[in-house]
Amino acid sequence: MNVLLLSMPDSFEHMPTVAVRMPNGALCSLAGNLDSHHKVEVADLILVPQKVRETVEQLVSQRNPHIVGLSVMTFQRKTALQIVALIRSMRPQIRIVVGGYDPSLAPNAYMNDSDRIDYIVRGEGELTFRELLRAIERGSGFQQILGLSYRAEDGWHENPSRPVHSLEGNEIRLPKRDARVLHGYTMMGRPIDVVETSRGCTFDCGFCSIIEMRGRNFHTYSFDRVLADIRDAREHGARAIFIVDDNISLNIKRFEALCQAIIDAGLNDIVYSVQAMTSPIAMHGDTLAPLMKKAGFRYVFLGIENILEDDLQFLKAAAKNEFREKGRKTGNATLRAIDYLHKNNMYVVGGLIIGNPDDTRESILANLEFARQYVDWPYIQHPTPYPGTPMTKDFRARDLIKIERMEEYDGTTAVVATRYLEPEEIEFERWRAERWMKTRHIPAVIAHDPLFVLRNWWKMLSHTFRGSSLRSMLGLESDREVFERYRQIRRAERAYL
């Protein structure tokens, strides 16, 4: 069968298109785990945000898929359903499958008769999708497929969930990067790809969709498999790799060993990025940080979450940010972790969450000032009530969810209020501070990627300061007016079809 896998064009706000365009690793993993007689192609629509309709129409017409699969996050739901409608208008007989975080956590949103979605893959998709295609070829057996919801003549059926995979052995094969039909993934001018070394997390952060989707667990691939994946990415042109693990720093000894394995394999000529917790970096920075640097790590997304203890308690993220000595908590680990990374010439992408239920303007400004002083690139988000998370239940119980339009659940659009501030006020404070923080990283980017900055500095600044004008630069317009114009631009950017 001909299989076409699509990721959505909707992206997070934090980075300009010219700076970062990251591939959807899950789709290539699905492609690599189908039976070899299928012809499978992957199209990341994030590469063509201005040509979504044209691209989908061309792919459906030219590739003649029997099955189309869509990977969907919550803020991409509206776009996904529009793409489904477009495909149905062209080829009603195509079978349509959806998967990813949003269909897994809110499957009822995809069971509307007008959308005519045929199958929902819940949770990890490799084995479920493989078994689904086998059942379609046989014409029966859907009721035996764990993790599948499917439409039948008498309505929707929901099979039991599939247990999370241990990642041991060879059952989950390497991604199939050759399946990509669109190209142009880059980070600061370098071709980039994604690699996965583990799945899962054992923490219970209230904002996290991962534990709602797969529970609290942690499973790892063998180093042989990880190194083979890195080599395959490099052979396909990658000169930068983002390690997409949910929480690679859960096992620091393993992370250190992985760094050494990358060095020993001669794969440290690649620029690596990773996301990590502050506590293990702070506790093990003496040995870990130099190894990370030697292995090629350059950017570390640090889950700071918040600098105020009350907010960390609400987010259930306090333990991730503790510094402990002799088994006792002796303070916050954030500054120590940042210091280790900076001493080893790595850059901190600072992940913070502002706009929690008891936040005042002063507490929000305190977090923004911390980000301005200590992080190299801000990744500041607002708490977002994704389906099923503990945070969602809390905000709804307090009647603080003010916006129900899922397309705005992108993390940088404030959709919940605090006891003291409306969403627009929270978003305004972040926007006003963050755009100037981003300019502070320009000297570091120039030092690391001078030619990229020389060619693209204007595009980067234009993205960061969208909404600004000559009048605003001359002080003839207020920040409020610029902010409103910026919001209008963002709304227009979200209209992909």
Topology diagram in text:
Layout: E1 2-7, E2 20-21, H1 25-32, E3 39-44, H2 52-63, E4 67-71, H3 77-90, E5 95-99, H4 101-105, E6 119-121, H5 126-138, E7 148-152, E8 155-158, E9 186-187, E10 190-195, E11 198-199, H6 210-214, E12 219-220, H7 223-235, E13 240-243, H8 252-264, E14 271-277, H9 278-295, E15 297-305, H10 309-315, E16 322-325, E17 328-332, H11 334-343, E18 347-353, H12 361-374, E19 377-381, H13 390-397, H14 423-439, H15 442-448, H16 450-464, H17 470-473, H18 479-493
Parallel strand pairs: 1-3, 1-4, 4-5, 5-6, 10-13, 13-14, 14-15, 15-18, 18-19
Antiparallel strand pairs: 2-9, 6-7, 7-8, 9-10, 11-12, 16-17
Helix pairs in contact: 1-5, 2-3, 8-9, 9-11, 12-14, 15-16
How would you characterize the overall build of this protein?
By secondary structure, this protein is an alpha/beta fold. The chain folds into three domains: 2-158, Rossmann fold; 185-456, Alpha-Beta Horseshoe (pyruvate-formate lyase- activating enzyme); 466-497. The chain is built from 18 helices and 19 strands. It has helices at residues 25-32, 52-63, 77-90, 101-105, 126-138, 210-214, 223-235, 252-264, 278-295, 309-315, 334-343, 361-374, 390-397, 423-439, 442-448, 450-464, 470-473, 479-493, and strands at residues 2-7, 20-21, 39-44, 67-71, 95-99, 119-121, 148-152, 155-158, 186-187, 190-195, 198-199, 219-220, 240-243, 271-277, 297-305, 322-325, 328-332, 347-353, 377-381. The strands form four sheets. The chain has an eight-stranded mixed β-sheet with strand order 2-9-10-13-14-15-18-19. A hairpin with a 2-residue loop joins strand 16 (322-325) and strand 17 (328-332). Helix 1 (25-32) packs across helix 5 and helix 12 (361-374) runs parallel beside helix 14 (423-439). The longest helix has 18 residues, at 278-295. The relative contact order is 0.10. The model has no long low-confidence stretch (mean pLDDT 93).
